[in-house]
Specification:
single chain; mainly alpha; two-stranded antiparallel sheet; globular
Length: 348
């Protein structure tokens, strides 16, 4: 009789939730078989519903994108993070939420130094950027790419090499979200500017679309220049995390100049594809020109705000006999110096 009851319970549980035999025996051995079965049914139902909802959402988004932008490039079909747009969009939303909530969370907390982690992180991105720059340059050379206009199917094996490297370039934009997170943890909130957030949040999304529709050809140029600039930039950030190295780092100002030069050159090269068109879609070229113009405006404003005003401030402080700011960093002993100057005038 007892065995018959257990058998009936197994039948009811399996018919309601399609549990595997092992899970059924686990619940039978517990003190509360019926509640265990209901709980598993709830979990399975919720999991199936969520999976169905996400699958339906992905299909809907993909259908709209395919109608709007046309057929995707089959060479990247099934590649990690490229099949559906939803993960990239969710990562971007989470990034913006952390940008908004992170400084609030850290407001009454001590900043983290993160010195060792920063050295490793920036060294890793320096090496990744160097690898991408090298592979893109050699791939362009092997494929005989044209500077003026290059379609997405005439480079042969070199096209696939470019596609593989540009996938890493897309993925690196996800890794670079950590730039902002480190600013938050170290309470360097003044570095989380509109330019910084706009650039990081948009690049990941733009390159998802690039990788699905134009993953090689004329897309190579901006990524190649940007990889080279990132070698300079992340090597600077990595070395600046070591205090003893800071006096020897002189090229920060030229990184911003290099970025502005990169945007101008990219606009010029993209415009060549418009003037002397090939089989590369013109819509992507127009979009890239517009995006580069937005970055030039924001970076130019950043450059003026950061360097020209800083230089004017230093000249003014020097004329007033104050050396409270040296190389853009506030001197922690400035108040002490001011007290000393009240007793003894500085002689230059």
């Amino acid at each position: 009789m007892k065995k018959a009851k257990v058998k009936q319970q197994e039948d009811r549980c399996s018919s309601g939730s399609s549990l595997e035999g092992k899970s059924q025996r686990l619940y039978q051995s517990s003190g509360n078989k019926r509640e265990g079965c209901k709980l598993e049914i709830g979990k399975k139902s919720g999991s199936k519903y969520w999976g169905y909802t996400m699958e339906s959402l992905d299909k809907t988004i993909n259908s709209y994108l395919d109608v709007w932008l046309g057929a995707r490039d089959p060479r990247v079909k099934g590649w990690f993070l490229l099949t559906n747009y939803t993960p990239t969009f969710i990562f971007s939303v989470l990034y913006l939420l952390i940008v908004w909530l992170g400084p609030k969370y850290m407001r009454n907390r001590q900043p983290f130094a993160c010195r060792g982690v920063l050295v490793i992180y920036n060294l890793g991105l320096t090496l990744l950027s160097l690898y991408m720059f090298y592979e893109l340059v050699t791939g362009v050379w092997e494929g005989g790419y044209s500077f003026y206009c290059q379609d997405t199917h005439s480079g042969g094996e070199a096209d696939m090499k470019i596609i593989r490297v540009l996938w890493w370039y897309y993925f690196s934009k996800l890794i670079e979200f950590m730039d902002t997170f480190f600013f938050i943890l170290r309470k360097n909130n003044h570095q989380i500017t509109v330019l910084h957030v706009y650039h990081h949040a948009t690049m990941l999304n733009i390159w998802w679309f690039v990788m699905n529709w134009v993953p090689c050809g004329h897309s190579y140029f901006g990524a190649t220049l940007n990889s080279f600039i990132h070698v300079l930039m992340y090597s600077y950030y990595g070395l600046s995390a070591v205090p003893s190295m800071r006096p020897y780092l002189w090229w920060k100002k030229y990184i911003t100049q290099g970025q502005l030069t990169q945007f101008v050159l990219t606009i010029f090269q993209t415009s060549c594809g418009v003037i002397w068109p090939c089989q590369f879609p013109l819509g992507w070229l127009y979009f890239q020109i517009g995006y580069m113009i937005s970055l030039i405006i924001l970076f130019t404003n950043f450059y003026i705000q950061t360097y020209n005003k800083k230089a004017a401030s230093r000249r003014k402080e020097y004329q007033n006999g104050s050396m409270a700011a040296v190389n853009g960093y506030t001197n922690s002993f400035s108040s002490l110096e001011n007290n000393v100057k009240q007793r003894k005038q500085r002689k230059d």
